[in-house]
Specification:
Blueprint: H1 2-15, E1 20-22, E2 31-33, E3 36-43, E4 51-54, E5 68-73, E6 84-89, E7 96-99, H2 101-106, H3 126-140
Parallel strand pairs: 3-5
Antiparallel strand pairs: 1-2, 2-3, 4-7, 5-6
């Protein structure tokens, strides 16, 4: 499951114009996006439409070498195969995060498509420009 999430993250970050580099297996983070160290997590819903993701490794929470968590939620009703991307600044100081529809609307909505946390991409792509325009429209309202 982790490799699939890393592949989605790699493609998404590249489409947004970030310089991305996959890291070796023993590295404390998965992707280098520009100068940000990104740990990628993926979660699928259980039978109660709840998503869980573990931020720890073997019961140990080590966040000193991570700048951003990119959490990919899949299997969202009405979204088809399109995942939801949440970007959190590290440290989160939590071993596990539980997502429900209510928590996504009330607590975690500000982290959805929070690509600005990664800084300015190395090149402006159509995907990045569309996101940037959407952000500007939201500020005007």
């Amino acid at each position: 499951m982790g490799i699939e999430g890393q592949e989605w993250a790699y493609k998404k970050l590249g489409s947004l114009g970030f310089s991305v580099k996959r890291m070796p297996y023993n590295c404390p983070f998965d992707i280098l996006a520009g100068d940000k160290r990104v740990e990628v997590k993926i979660a699928r819903p259980n039978n109660t439409w709840t998503w869980f993701t573990n931020l720890h490794h073997g019961g140990k929470l080590s966040e000193s070498e991570v700048d951003v968590y990119l959490i990919i939620l899949t299997g969202i009703p009405g979204c088809g195969s399109m995942p939801l991307y949440l970007l959190f600044p590290a440290p989160v100081k939590r071993y596990t995060i539980k997502f429900t529809f209510t928590s996504l609307l009330r607590v975690y909505h500000r982290y959805v498509d929070n690509w600005g946390i990664l800084g300015t991409p190395q090149r402006e792509t159509p995907t990045y420009l569309a996101w940037k325009n959407k952000q500007a429209e939201g500020e005007d309202n």
